[in-house]
Amino acid sequence: MSSTATVYLDHNATTRPVPEAVAAMVQALQQDWANPSSTHGPGQDARRLLAHARGRVAAFLGCSVAELVFTSGATEANHMAVLGAVKASGRDRDRVLMSAVEHPGLQALAQRLQGEGVKVDLIPVDAQGRLSLAAARSLIADNVALVSVMGANNETGVLMPVAEVAALARAAGARMHVDATQLAGKAALGFAASGADLMSFSAHKLGGPKGVGALVVRKGLALPPLLSGRQERVRRGGTENVPGIAGFAAACDRAAATLPADIEHMGALRRRLEDALSALPGVHVYGREAERLCNTLCLRFGSLDAEQVLMKLQRAGIVASSGAACSAGGTQPSHVLLAMGESELNAKAGVRLSLGPETTAAEIDATIAAATEHLLPLLAQAEAQPVSLGVS
Ligand code: PMP
Fold first, then answer.
1. Domain 19-254 sits in CATH 3.40.640.10
2. Number of H-type helices and E-type strands within the chain
3. 234-251 pLDDT, tens per residue?
4. Where are the domains of the chain?
5. What is the rounded average pLDDT of the residues 191-196?
6. CA angle in degrees (0–180, nearest 5) for 124-128-131
7. pLDDT of 221-231, one tens digit each?
8. For the whole model, what pTM was predicted?
9. CATH code of the region 7-14+259-380
10. Ligand 1: which of 181, 182, 245, 334 to mutate, most ligand atoms within 8 Å of CB?
11. Which CA distances in Å does 182 have to 88, 160, 178, 346, 356?
12. What is the CA(71)–ligand 1 centre distance, in A?
């Protein structure tokens, strides 16, 4: 990052690794660097470190040690869950249900599966981003292999009714996968009580390093591996990322100790930010009536393009992000906001401000001041010059 004065409000994209995680990684790289599959002493030291880390991550995620498979992150865990569950199901189960607002990696996988003859149905959300349980109920049937619904949406922070959907899936004999990436470090977690069969996580969303995550696989469920090899009880091949896993475990320890206080802190600051920004003319907050993550604020400033808003904020030292993606063909609207019924114009206007445990009240006040100073004039200007309809 260019300067220490930067206000970082993009914690849903990635978080700064906590010092405990960095220290654990350095120690693993310097001391326990051998291959944990080696039978000699140094290898066994690395193996012990791995086992110790596995116990701490499992405790944080609320699963047993045997249910935890380390992966390269949530994208891999999502692929392993969906492809594995489809393969493990009989031929009479050739359908997958997924929420319409899943992470782009899962959406792309759904498209790939459709090309391979698997039928994928999207469960819609309402204008607040809440999953339609009625639609889930009408789509579930005994030919469904898997239902995949995220724990919380990464753009809006809206929480999904995981337990209810899991009960529907179970009654129909289907498996349930939860992409819980955005819950970790921001909400209480408990795999065992969730009713899910499979749950994905990523370390870099809760103070750990990038390139490491986990898939929790309910005891008794045999999934074909995505990567072949003897590691992780033959469920995920490839030498384990021992330093990354050590960092993941340290981040889990820290989050477990500070979670209630973090939730309160982030929630109070998010409310302060939301109350101030929503009072500005033309500002619309997404999912305001829905249950949301404590740290996430998704909003638009009139219909100002997100890129324009983000650039103004960045010039004022505030970094955030949007769900809209830039591509060669211009800005692509956010699929999440489109699924919530927004127009293409507004779906390119959504800006996500996501807080972390380290966010301060002074940073929130600086953000409010910057938005008021730099975005209000833009909004007024846009209002004075309505969008051209091409009629001169
Ligand atoms: N799922 C969700 C909901 C996410 O927010 C992310 C990260 N943007 C991912 C999956 C992908 O995680 P990773 O970077 O570990 O592959």
1. yes
2. 14, 15
3. 999 999 999 999 999 999
4. 7-14+259-380, 19-254
5. 94
6. 35
7. 999 999 999 99
8. 0.95
9. 3.90.1150.10
10. 181
11. 27, 11, 11, 24, 12
12. 12
